[in-house]
Amino acid sequence: MRLPNTDTLLVNQDGPVLHITLNRPDSRNAMSLAMVNELMALFEAVKDNRDIRAIVLRGAGGHFCAGGDIKDMAGARQQAAAGDSDAYVALNRRFGEMITAANQQPQVVITVLEGAVLGGGFGLACISDVAIASRDATFGLPETGLGVIPAQIAPFVVQRIGLTQARRLALTGLRFKGEEAQRLGIVHEVVDSSELDNALAQTLATVRRCAPNANRVTKQLVLKVGHEPMDSLLDQAARDFADAVNGEEGQEGTMAFVQKRPASWNQ
What we know:
Strand content: 5-15%
Number of domains: 2
Largest sheet: 6 strands, mixed
Number of strands: 8
């Protein structure tokens, strides 16, 4: 499989796992438009690849992501001054397109969070299927303190932790650490920085025990909750269940259970 070339990301495929590292350490991996576009290209390139079962997002240099790139804001300001009234809209909406793609990615998306997890980085944490954080990571939505709004991020924060807590975080710009992020439901596991790699390895081992297509269909199902009528959703879920039982994975999973051995996909 040929992956897109990237300048702001380090990309490495390790068997069924695609590791993507945000690689702008001098700016604490602030998310530039170039980075947004490169992430979107990668997500699109692997979307239908059944051999890739998990995507790991992390940051270089001890930080995950400190938010949006101020230089892009300055560039949009120049475009607006030159008569492009939609420059800010296009810039902001592009990030929303990327985070939507990440949210809907068929693979299991895992974030490894340390250092700054702010703004756009906070948004990526909120769409991940599994979020592992360092105890001393710093989370927050600083936008309102800068006179702007978390426009593309806020809806995903509400989905992640509920309206009450999302309002508090967005309207105060509160900064907090990993254990509070876990209490709020933003992250699933909090460890010391030295244990991040071990925690990731354990999570990837659990993902490998799950059948690849069953995971894809299950993720699609849970993402539809609240967006489709329950009866039609359950009707489709029953059809998907029947397909799974009669499919190769269902047959292999049942046989592996009976024979007390790992399933063929557990590798």
